Structures are given as C-alpha cells and as structure tokens.
Amino acid sequence: MLRLRTFLRGAAMALSLLALGAAPAMGAAQKFLRMPDVRQVGEDGAGIAALQAVFAYYGLDGRQDVLRQRLTERGSSPNDFRQIVRVANEYGLKATVMSKMTEQQLRDQISKGFPVIVAVQAWIEGGGTRSITDWARRKENGHWLVALGYDDMAFYFEDPAIFGIGAIRRDVMPFRWHDYDAKGNRLEHVGIVVEGPSPGRYDPSIAVPID
C-alpha cells in the first residue's frame, strides 16, 4: 500500500487536473488520514464503498456485498444517508449527520482523526460544463466521498470512483457540496462524521499473516 508521500503526490496530480483553471502546486497537507483505497462496484455503489473505506480505517471488516445487503435490507437505496448512519452505528462506530456543515467544521473533524463521508456533485459525463454556477445548480451527479485531508488550497478524498486520492479546490467546494435524497430534498453541505478508535487502526506498514 502506498505511503503518505505517494498519497500526496497523487493528490497533487489530481488537483492539477481539476477543471476550473490551473491550480498551483500543492503544499504540505496540514492533515491527512491514512485510509485504504477502495473502488465502488456498480453505478450505485459509492455509498457502499465509502462506508467500506471508513470501516477499514477503523480496523473493521466489511465486504461490499455484505454492506450492500445491510444498507438495502429496509428497502432503501444503498446511498441513503440514513442507512449509512444506521449500519455504521450497528458496527459499533458513532456516525452523526451534520447538515449545513462549514469548511472549518470539516477540517476540525479531520484534524481529530475522524473521516467524514460527504455528498457532492462529481464526475459529469459528456460535454457538461463545470463553472461554479453550473456546479451549484447541478442535481444529477450526486456522489459520496470520504474526506481525509486538507491544506490551504484543497480538500482531499478517498473517492470510490477512482483509484488514488481525489481533490476538490477549496474555492469550488462550497458550490459542489450538495445532493438530493430520494424524495427530492436538497442535502446542503451534509457530512456524516464517523467516530471510532482514534487514531484509526489502519496501518499499511503492518503485514497481516495469511492463514
């Protein structure tokens, strides 16, 4: 598994590829949580994979097929934030939904060692534009990410849609940080703060015996 230095190189590359203008080189991350890289299965798998990454961060085993079953057992979408909170709590973590969360609150939780699952607009397909105004109005591209780091220019995420670390510039983040639930209610700056043993138990330098 890659170490922090490699994570930061990947984050800097992702930042340079952001659509809204050229970005300056990334400075040293002020906080960065070590978390395993995951990849979602299926178009509706972001919430499942995000939860899996958080579980692994805290040393919990959660296969995506099992988590899908748990998240949907009450007839809801696997991306329903209420079910994500429920399942996280059933596994012994403390998951709390924060609405209209500020960037400072997001930074504070990361600094405490708590990953935050956030709902944003991301990965526009085709020729869709990506101006700040377009991001603020967009409804169709909701996506779950796990916030795990920040510096003066960007927030960094475990993104289930890609391998490696994703980045969103801080000046763009407020306009992308929203989604809609199944009833059409706008989720404004929603973050699921997941507390557990802090710091997280994930350590890529430790080899696990294969029985």
Total helices: the number is: 7
Structural class: alpha+beta
**What's the end-to-end separation, in Å?**
20 Å
Q: Strand percentage, roughly?
A: 15-25%
Question: In sequence order, what are the helices and strands, one letter per element?
Answer: HEHHHEHEHEEEHEEE
Can you summarize the main beta sheet?
A: 7 strands, antiparallel
Number of strands: 9
Low-confidence parts, pLDDT < 50 over ≥5 residues?
A: 1-26
Mean pLDDT: 85
Helix content: 25-40%
Report Rg.
Answer: 16 Å
3D shape: globular
- Note the quaternary state here: single chain
What does this structure look like?
The chain is α+β, with helices and mostly antiparallel strands and about 210 residues long. Helix content is about 30%, strand content about 20%. It has seven helices and nine strands. Strands 1, 2, 3, 4, 5, 6 and 9 form a seven-stranded antiparallel sheet that branches. Helix 2 crosses helix 3. It starts with a helix and ends in a 16-residue tail after the last strand. The relative contact order is 0.22.
Briefly summarize what is shown.
Strands 1, 2, 3, 4, 5, 6 and 9 form a 7-stranded antiparallel sheet that branches. A two-stranded antiparallel sheet has the order 7-8. The protein has 7 helices and 9 strands, in the order αβαααβαβαβββαβββ. Helices cover 30% and strands 20% of the residues.
